Amino acid sequence: MGWLLWTLETLLAVAGAWALSAALLRERSTLERWMAALLFGAASILTCVQGLGLSGQLGRVQLAVAGLVLHGAMLAVAVLRVGGAELLARLRADLGAPVRLLRDIHRRQELAAWALLPAACALVLSCVVAWYYPNWAWDVVWYHVPKTNYAVQTGSITWVDTSVWYVNGYPELTELLSVWNVLLPRHTRLDDLSQIPFGLLGALAVAALCRRASASPALAASLGAMWLTLPAVFLQLHTSHADVVAGALFITAFYFLTERDWSPVARTLTLLALGLYAGTKVTGLFHLALLSPLLLVRGVLVLRRAKGARWRTLGQAGLAVLLLLWLGAPTYVENAARTGNPFWPARMRVLGRELAGPIGAEEIAGPPAFFGAPGAFARMVDNWSAREGMYWPDVRERAFGWLFPYLLLPVLLWVSASALFSRERWFRLSLPLLAGLAVLVPAAWWGRFTLGLPAAGLVAFAVLHRQVGTRYLQAPLSALAAFLCVASFAKASVGYRVLPTLGPRATPDVRDEDRLRLQIGWLWPLEAMRQREQELRPGDVVAYDSATSFLGEYWTDDLRNRVEYVNHEGNDGVYLDKLRALRPRWVSVRRESPAEHLLRARSHAFERLFDCPLSSAVMYRVTRADW
Questions:
Q1: For this UniProt entry, which segments traverse the membrane (predicted)?
Q2: pTM: predicted TM-score of the whole model, two decimal places
Q3: What's the mean pLDDT in 318-326?
């Protein structure tokens, strides 16, 4: 029943988002309408989860009702605005877009279109991995998954008592979208699905920028697909790392912000994308601050042109700003209210004021923004062309494969250098601006943090492709890009590490998840995972202390148990009283700590189960209630 509920609610969300985009962007291109639909869908689902979570009413029935009302209203507004007949006509046209694209590829004999194959493969593989495997990436099991699980457990998205700081302080768009995929079916099987739509959004945004550069539909789609097949993108699609979400939203916001006329629709979508971006990662707030002068200047120019309609324009802008704040501000507001530091847990100095936090900002992200450490720029450049890329457990070196350093970077430099001599100088100058903004973030050497950089290179390639003007030069360029794209995808595919078995298994008793756990050293061992699923009943409590690292492993697959933080602060009696109040089924404590000594002294009631991997935590089973 849960899967049926999730399917119906998600289909309604898709229908409502698409219909609203079709109604509001009737005169826009198919690419822009699809981009808007993805933004509307993400914003509406976030609104449901966040609204209920902030009020402490986040439950399965409440979420289903909220989704039904909001997405039904979006669909109704679209029908009332343009009529059902026009929506159906637009739907038929949109469903025919892939066929029209294939015809254009065939007519133009576009060799770059070979990139569509690995892009499609990446999307399909990511969906398969998300279905068969738990969310296993390092940071994800550490704090991304616990964010989602705590929201489901508590019915709230406010702070919880925990030793994992990032669970409370970090922006959480990706994790809240995962709540939709977990709470409705009441299972974590799809908790790592939330980035996949944003991979598509990023590809669409790159394609739209290429169309603005006068690329053909075939070439634009191919270059968008190349962004999707970058190692830093396709190897993260099936996780909830949030970097693909952030990169896609940044590129999308930049696309709408740099529209020539900056229409009301473009203004709203710019702020919508920036709000979602700020709610995804702190770099979203960083880029919002950097772009604010441009936003202000463009806003003033729009207001000056709006003679006779300035109050209406101001009203539209005000509503868009409120939307941005609703989507992006809640985490920062709560952090500031609780600690005085909106960027908690990062300790940093801003405008001469020291913002307190348990960990230095440089310890989280590495070199500060604006290459604020010796050798930071050189390290970033070196990592683009490292001899061997690090693709597992996450993407670090050579995050853009061979495509960016050996083709897109030289093209981007050429197009940027020649921009002043071009009639379209402002558009061409926007490309180094996009690239520059992308790499000013902290730890820019980490390619998955700078996904706007290769996007600028792909658009520059579209400019050069048109500039050469002759088919005899365009064809080799397209072929080279396709070769580097496909070769990079093949080389980096080792980062999948373990793939599900489709067909008969060599060893029938060994499940796909068993093979995964044998490979991933920070996940619980097979026997521990099986004990968790077999022993823990609905409502059972698993207690943990500050020794815990990979907190996502403490919940069952269907989240039927509760996970609670109980730390020994020096008083044996207080610690034991807290445990007794919770009546835990399992207790995780630091090895050789006072807490473990207490459990050992009560060996008649506590049985040691296993050591938690890559941490100093030890798990005990409570065997008696009268301890």
A1: 6-25, 37-55, 61-82, 111-133, 217-234, 240-257, 315-333, 399-421, 433-460, 472-490
A2: 0.97
A3: 97
